[in-house]
Amino acid sequence: MLVIPAIDLQRGHCVRFRNGELEEERVYFDDPVQMAKLWRVQNAKILHLMNRDQEELAKDEDNLTVIRQIVAALDIPVQAAGRVRTLDDIEALFEAGVYRVEIASTATYDADFVEEAVQRFSGSRLVVGLALDAPDAIEHALDLEQRGVCRLIAADPPRSGCLTGPNIDGLRALAKHLTRARVTAAGGVGGYRDLLALQALEPLGVDSVIVARALYENRFPCQRFWAWHDKEHLDLDRFSTAPLQSGSA
User: Fold this and answer.
1) Element spanning 6, H or E
2) CB–CB of 241/75 below 8 Å?
3) pLDDT, position 153
């Protein structure tokens, strides 16, 4: 089970959201580049960046600048999401150095657009967001799979940032219906036991999970070995381009 740390971006800064709403507290580093480097120190193998501004990410120069800086600072793939609705949005993010782009969930219901994007950029470079609580989630996922989508991010918005546990039943039902597409879970992870529950779904194709608040709050035992409490004194530039370590995140 691949754990993917997430960073929420707003006006070029690192913020924290819960249930889609901005919390007053800033998280650890106001500088998203420093935050990204810290996740790399903690052995992250891929990073998820989420645009929280109202403006489309491709037109948000503050966040685009930060994304370019993060891509340049790290030696791991970066995935970007948030209000990606057009082919130009996708193109701008790839030009910024992003490895994979998540198409906004509101855009995925335009199946022709998704199919065109897959044909132009390839299914391996795109991921599509899907709301697990939508009544037609499985039907929609099957249609996306037929159109060449290789990976879905199955999110459960009411659980986002709440640490109440992932929607295991919803993820299982979704994954059982898919034949080729892989699933990345998002929302609800509160600790190690939730990762074990998700790991049980790996044979069905749920092979990764996006985690934010639980990582920020140091809820995993392994984090105590990764110098989290000494973060202010770490030479992050020294570690941010270190070779990847073996083993799961």
Assistant:
1) strand 2-10
2) yes
3) 96
Q: How much is the average pLDDT of 138-142?
A: 94
Mean pLDDT over 3-29 rounds to 69
Establish if 58 belongs to a structural domain: yes
pLDDT, tens digit (0-9, with 9 covering 90-100), for 192-234:
899 999 999 999 999 999 998 888 887 886 655 555 455 555 5
CA 76 remoteness from chain centre = 14
Contact (Cβ atoms closer than 8 angstroms) between residue 58 and residue 64: yes
Q: Which of 72, 15, 33, 34 is nearest to 233 (CA)?
A: 34
pLDDT at 59: 67
Q: Whose structure tokens read 């891509």?
A: 71
Catalytic residue among 30, 75, 133, 136: 133
C-beta of residue 177 within 8 angstroms of C-beta of residue 141: yes
- Domain residue limits at 31: 2-230
Q: Does 238 map to a domain?
A: no
d(C-alpha 24, C-alpha 158), whole Å: 19
Catalytic, 75? Answer no
246 pLDDT band (50/70/90 cuts)? very low
Q: Answer whether residue 246 is part of any domain.
A: no
CATH number at 16 reads 3.20.20.70
User: Into how many domains does the chain fold?
Assistant: 1
Asked about 136 being catalytic, the answer comes back as no
pTM reported for the whole predicted model: 0.85
